Amino acid sequence: MSGQVLRGAWLGDAVGDVRIGDGSIAEVGPGLEPAAGERVVELGGYVLLPSPLEAHAHLDKAFLADVVSNPTGDLLGAIRAMETAAHSFSVDDTTNRAVRAIELMAANGCTVIRTHVDVTEWTGLRPMEAVLAARAATVHLVDVEIVALCGFPVLGTEGALHRSLLADAMTMGADLVGGCPHLEPSSLDEATSYLLQVAADHSVGVDLHTDETLDAGVLGLADLARHVAAGFEHPATASHCVSLSMLPEARQREVAEQVAAAGIGVVALPQTNLYLQGRAHAEATPRGITSVAALRAAGVPVAAGQDNLQDPFNPLGRGCPLDIAALMVLVSHLTPDDAYRSVSDEARRVLGREAVSLTVDSPADLLAVRAGSLRQALAAGPSDRLVWRAGMLTARSAAALELER
Predict the structure, then answer these.
(1) Of 320, 336, 351, at which residue does a domain stop?
(2) Has residue 405 been placed in a domain?
(3) Predicted confidence (pLDDT) per residue in 146-196, tens digit
(4) Nearest to 86 by CA among 307, 311, 269
C-alpha cells in the first residue's frame, strides 16, 4: 500500500501534516516531505479528525418514510405501521435501500456501522438476508456489524416463532443478539435473561433496545445491569435508556453506578427519540433522551447514534454523525469536543473497537472536513469531506456554491 501525506490540516491544536502508510499513522508534524511514490493530499482549510462511527442504525428500514406513514407519530405507531407493511418489501428492495444508507453514512465519515435488523413474525428473515448482502457489497467502504433485533414476545408459547427466527438469524451471520425486553408483554426481566442466554450460547454480545419509554416505572436498565454483573461474559450495550431521565437525580446516579460496575455501554439516540417521545406530555414536555450527565459522571461510556433514517420512526435524518454530535451539544449540554467524542471515541469504546487518534501507530481511520475547527464543523456540517479507512481514501465529497451578484 503506497503512503500518503495529508498536508496542512488543522489537527486540534495546530496546523500540521500526517503521514499514513500500511493502514496506520506513521508520522505527525509540520512540514513533512513526501517520499518517493507517496501521494500528497492538500488539506488546507480542513480539520482532520478520527473518523466517526454509527453506533445504532436500522438499515433495513432506511428510506421508507414516503412509503410507510406513522399515523400516531409515536413508537408504537411506527412499530404497527412497519408490521402492516413488512410483507411489501422484497429482499432486493431492502438490499438496495440498505446499500444506499451505508454509502451515505460512509460518505459522511463513518467507517463502522452497527445496525439492528428486524427478525419478526412479519418480516421473517428477509431483512437479515438483505442486510447481509448489503454488507458484502460495501465491505470496501465500511465495517458493518449486525444485531439480530428479535421481535416480541419471546417468552412462552406465543414467543416460539421469534425464538426460532432469532436462532436462524444467528446461524446466518448476525454478530450480536438484540431485542426489546421493555415491550415483552409478560416479563421484562425474563425476556432480558433469555436474550442474554442466547448471546452466551453463541459467545457474542448483546445490544438491547432498553426502556424506550417515558414511564419511570419501566427500568429494564437496572435489570440488565444486575444480570450482566451476575456473570454475563460478553459485551453488553443498552440503547435508548429513556426512562432513566424520568427518575429522581439520586436514583439516576444509583442506576448509572450499577451500569458502570457491570461494564455496560449506553447509546443515546437524540434525533429519533426527540421525534417519538413526549407527545402525550402537553406541559413540561420531556426531551426523551437518556441521562447522559449521570451516566458519564459514573464512568459509563455513552455513544450517540442516528438510529432511524427517514422511516416511520424518524422521517428525517441525513446519516451524518456530525448532525448527531451537534444535537448532543443542544439536548445533552455536551461541549462540542465531548459531543464529537460521543460519535467517535466513546462509540469505539461501546462497540469494542480500537481507539483512533492523530498519533503515530494509530489506525488511519480519518475524516477531514472543510472547517476551521471542530466546533465550526458541527455548526455548519459542511459537505466537503474526505474519508480514510485503514489508510485508504474511500470517499470524497464537495459542494459547489454560486451566488448571483
Answers:
(1) 351
(2) no
(3) 999 999 999 999 999 999 999 999 999 999 999 999 999 999 999 999 999
(4) 311
What contacts 354, CB < 8 A, 6 or more positions away?
A: 348, 363
Q: How far apart are CA 136 and CA 99, in angstroms?
A: 10
Beta-carbon count within 10 A of 233 CB:
10
Distance of alpha carbon 345 from alpha carbon 301, whole angstroms: 9
- Would 105 be classed as within a structural domain? yes
Question: 203 by DSSP, 3-state: which?
Answer: coil
Is 47 in contact with 371 (CB distance < 8 Å)? yes
Q: Tell whether 199 and 279 lie within a shared domain.
A: yes
Q: Is residue 10 part of a domain?
A: yes
Phi then psi dihedrals of residue 233, to 5 deg: -100, 15
What are the CA-CA distances from residue 189 to residues 52, 132, 244, 303 (Å)? 34, 31, 16, 24
402 part of a folded domain: no
**Per-residue b/e over 160-173, b at no fewer than 16 CB within 10 Å?**
eebbebbbebbebe
194-219 as b/e: b if 16+ CB within 10 A: bbbebbbebebbbbbbbbbbbeeebb
Comparing CA positions, the residue from 272, 348, 399 lying closest to residue 111 is 348
- Which of 58, 42, 236 has the alpha carbon at shortest distance from 130? 58
Cell digits for 137? Answer: 457489497
Q: 3-state class of 370 per DSSP?
A: strand
Name the DSSP letter for residue 147. Answer: E
Nearest to 228 by CA among 239, 237, 219: 237
- Beta-bridge mates of residue 47: 10, 369
Q: Is 279 helix (H, G, I), strand (E, B) or coil?
A: coil
Q: Is residue 155 domain-shared with residue 176, that is, in the same domain? A: yes
Do 373 and 335 form a contact (C-beta atoms < 8 A)? no
Residues spanned by the domain of 362:
4-51+356-397
Angle at 18 between CA 12 and CA 24, to 5 degrees: 110
Return d(Cα 34, Cα 37) in angstroms, integer: 8
User: Cell numbers at residue 213, please?
Assistant: 419509554
List of residues 6+ apart from 390 with CB closer than 8 A: 23, 363, 364, 365
Span 299-310, pLDDT tens digits: 999 999 999 999
- The pLDDT of residue 405 is 87
